[in-house]
């Protein structure tokens, strides 16, 4: 059974259709990129999956359950199974790196435990292990606002990983980073899928990055799914379709 | 060319505005028959009177312990009114901030309370409360409390707004509950700013407490009023001096604290 199955998903703001009849499935262990021009609905699609945005109609079957039908308690439980990485990292800047990483465990705690910040030794060890793995363990006790963008994004990834998620959603994880940090981050995301078997869905602006990292690419244009296939199938014809113009234009822009 | 033109028209706008302001000032002076020239002339006389009468003598220092007692009482009341108000405002701020609001009703209610409490000056509150509670320290306390709730709720809302939705969304996405997000992401980020507002309000309230005290017959304001009405101007001068010193000390201390927390 597929890990994630999206059926006839619709979302509109006021009278503007942002997502129209989106259908696709994602298998466990896939690395899927979502591309499309600005305003195509990439962020909205990702946010519908963990219900940061409420879809209008359709089904999102994740882990065997229809996310859109879940009550508050079960939604919380499924959210814990879905990590999220943001373009602007979305950390708490004044808190330390280790505190921000441990935030990823709240989904498994009672409100009170979370508010009091009760974490087991195991959880702390795991946090340090992840920081070590992403090469920022020496910054563990620094405030996040003292780190570079690339380092903050790695904290964001640690926060997602400590959730022990089955799926990680990344909304333009490298859009605010320089080329070198971008490569570092993309390599980490790729290794997460390959080594830990965690499925990744990544919104990207750069077609070449999508092509070199993903198994499969989804192309959105004005809320319509216009491409869904293995990355080598995405040729200049389809790129034109996704971005709504000639590839030649695309290069000169 | 175009830039030159806009600059020129901007200049004319300024001149036009200046003329309007001058007109209004003139009209206002005419209407209340405020004699500018006469008031200027009275400044030296007033200054002379102050130097002659507000001279603290050794004798006046005998009043010192009494004054200090009242002063401390006033400071404590201001601090108490501020901290209790801060506690209430904390929840109102969370309910009203666009980042953390949960439903429109609560948000509207908290904004309503804040704006009513804030837009009526503390002195007016004191007079209103005087009618129902009479002349006692509770009235003074409540006047400060109500005004502070209004101000701090507004300030807290803005501090929380400033934190923004980013970390709120990130934690919600991990499966955290509303209160976990508030207390572990939003408040830690907003807290220094909020504490800074509380310190500011303590300063302000110690200043207002004097005035409120004159009206409600409590604290240092009452002492001031008493000496003033018994024509003991030297004691009035001492009270004033001590109030100024207190305010300066409080301000310096809170600046220190601010530097550490921000
Ligand atoms: N909260 C909202 N209210 C109204 N309209 C919205 C809202 N959020 C998004 N939209 C609209 O939905 C459309 C899709 O937005 P979305 O952020 O999903 O696009 P995107 O593909 O992620 O774009 P980008 O590449 O610029 O991030 C846009 O036209 C946007 O204006
Ligand atoms: Mg987006």
UniProtKB/TrEMBL annotation, chain A:
Coiled coil: none annotated. Gene3D superfamilies: P-loop containing nucleotide triphosphate hydrolases (3.40.50.300). The gene is phnC. This is Phosphonate ABC transporter ATP-binding protein. Residues 4-247 form the ABC transporter domain. Keywords: ATP-binding, Cell membrane, Membrane, Nucleotide-binding, Phosphonate transport, Translocase, Transport. It comes from Cytobacillus stercorigallinarum. CDD domains: ABC_PhnC_transporter. PANTHER family: AMINO ACID IMPORT ATP-BINDING PROTEIN, PHOSPHONATES IMPORT ATP-BINDING PROTEIN PHNC.
From TrEMBL, chain B:
Its main location: membrane. PROSITE patterns: ABC_TM1. Keywords: Cell membrane, Membrane, Transmembrane, Transmembrane helix, Transport. It is found in: Cell membrane. Residues 71-254 form the ABC transmembrane type-1 domain. InterPro entries: MetI-like, MetI-like_sf, PhnE/PtxC. It is a multi-pass membrane protein. The chain crosses the membrane at residues 12-29, 75-95, 235-253. NCBIfam families: PhnE. Belongs to the binding-protein-dependent transport system permease family. This is Phosphonate ABC transporter, permease protein PhnE. The lineage of its organism: Bacteria, Bacillati, Bacillota, Bacilli, Bacillales.
């Amino acid at each position: 059974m597929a890990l994630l199955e999206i059926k006839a998903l619709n979302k509109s703001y006021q009278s503007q259709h942002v997502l129209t009849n989106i259908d696709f499935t994602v298998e466990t262990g896939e690395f899927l990129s979502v591309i499309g021009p600005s305003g195509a609905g990439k962020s909205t699609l990702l946010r519908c999956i963990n219900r940061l945005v409420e879809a209008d109609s359709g089904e999102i079957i994740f882990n065997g359950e229809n996310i859109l039908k879940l009550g508050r308690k079960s939604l919380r439980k499924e959210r814990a199974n879905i990590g999220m990485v943001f373009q602007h990292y979305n950390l708490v800047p004044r808190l330390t790196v280790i505190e921000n990483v441990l935030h990823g465990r709240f989904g498994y705690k009672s409100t009170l435990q979370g508010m009091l910040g009760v974490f087991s030794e195991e959880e702390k060890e795991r946090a340090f292990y992840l920081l070590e793995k992403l090469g920022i363990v020496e910054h563990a006790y620094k405030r996040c606002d003292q780190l570079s963008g690339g380092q903050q994004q790695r904290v964001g990834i640690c926060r997602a990983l400590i959730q022990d998620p089955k799926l990680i959603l990344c909304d333009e994880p490298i859009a605010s980073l320089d080329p070198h940090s971008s490569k570092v981050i993309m390599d980490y995301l790729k290794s997460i899928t390959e080594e830990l078997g965690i499925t990744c869905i990544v919104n990207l602006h750069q077609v070449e990055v999508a092509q070199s990292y993903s198994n499969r690419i989804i192309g959105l244009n004005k809320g319509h799914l216009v491409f869904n296939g293995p990355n080598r199938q995405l040729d200049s014809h389809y790129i034109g379709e996704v971005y709504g113009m000639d590839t030649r234009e695309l290069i000169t822009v | 060319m175009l830039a030159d033109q806009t600059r020129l028209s901007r200049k004319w706008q300024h001149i036009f505005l200046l003329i309007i302001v001058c007109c209004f000032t003139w009209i206002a002076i005419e209407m209340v028959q405020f004699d500018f020239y006469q008031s200027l002339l009275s400044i030296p006389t007033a200054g002379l009177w102050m130097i002659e009468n507000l001279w603290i003598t050794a004798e006046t220092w005998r009043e010192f312990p009494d004054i200090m007692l009242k002063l401390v009482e006033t400071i404590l009341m201001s601090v108490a009114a501020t901290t209790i108000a801060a506690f209430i405002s904390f929840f109102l701020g969370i309910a009203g901030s666009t980042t953390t609001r949960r439903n429109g009703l609560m948000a509207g209610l908290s904004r309503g309370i804040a704006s009513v409490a804030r837009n009526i000056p503390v002195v007016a509150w004191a007079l209103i409360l005087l009618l129902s509670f009479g002349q006692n320290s509770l009235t003074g306390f409540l006047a400060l409390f109500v005004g502070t709730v209004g101000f701090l709720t507004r300030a807290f809302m803005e501090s929380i707004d400033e934190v923004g939705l980013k970390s709120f969304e990130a934690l919600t996405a991990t499966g955290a509950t509303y209160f976990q997000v508030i207390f572990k992401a939003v408040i830690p980020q907003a807290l220094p700013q909020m504490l800074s507002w509380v310190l500011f309000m303590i300063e302000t309230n110690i200043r207002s407490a004097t005035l409120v005290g004159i009206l409600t017959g409590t604290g240092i304001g009452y002492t001031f009023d008493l000496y003033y009405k018994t024509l003991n101007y030297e004691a009035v001068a001492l009270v004033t001096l001590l109030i100024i010193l207190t305010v300066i000390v409080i301000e310096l201390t809170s600046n220190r604290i601010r530097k550490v927390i921000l």
